[in-house]
Amino acid sequence: MRAVRIGITGPIGCGKSTVSAMLAELGAAVIDADEVAREVRRVPAIEREIMERFGSTDPAVLARTVFADMAAMRDLEAIIHPAVRPQILTAIEAAEDRGAPAVVVEAIKLVEGGLATSCDEVWLVTCDPPIQRGRLHDRGLARDDAERRIASQGHLRDRVEPVATRRIDTSGSLDDTKAQVARAWSDLVR
Q: Is 51 exposed, middle or buried (0-12, 13-18, 19+ CB in 10 A)?
């Protein structure tokens, strides 16, 4: 049986993982594109390509480089993304084979990576900018690093807005977010 496929996306620090975890508690299988990308980066051929282009495979070094230079970001994505998408599609099929009622694909580049077209719904997770910055600070990111990461995502909301079927605003309390997720889940599993 084909599961309901939910794509979760939104700017950094807005609560994509929190929303995905709430959906997992409700029975959804969750596929985190960042985790898949980390696995793909460890494939020897891809590691070599990253090393040739960036001189390092260290995630912290790569992050500093690509969040400061959009051309470097595009180069890294061009190396990694072709291997990520097939892995995610395989994981979706595996979750459906296991009988998951819903499969969540959490991906910052859901639309750009072509994964939105594989989803029945696209949820845009957002929050107010001061809350976003506070969350990034709470994660230990320095202010300038947080600002670079936010800026690197450009107008993500504008790009996702036209395809988003639902918007989850996590600016309020955790209970408020949980209520929004529960309502959306209830709509989907009817």
A: exposed
**pTM of structure:** 0.91
Gap between the Cα atoms of 127 and 178, Å rounded: 14
The pair of three-digit structure tokens given for residue 52, joined into one six-digit string = 């040739």
CA torsion 67→107→36→184, rounded to 10°? 150
How far is it, in rounded angstroms, from Cα 57 to Cα 112?
Answer: 24
How many degrees, rounded to 5, is the angle at CA 40 between CA 10 and CA 136? 35
| Identity of the amino acid at 93 | E
d(CA 34, CA 19): 15
Report which DSSP code applies to 114. Answer: T
pLDDT tens-digit series, residues 14-49: 999 999 999 999 999 999 999 999 999 999 999 999
Kindly give the interhelix angle for 70-97 and 33-41, rounded to the nearest 10 degrees.
110
Hey, what's the torsion of the CAs at 156, 161, 163, 166, to 10 degrees? 110
- State both tokens at 120: 């029945």
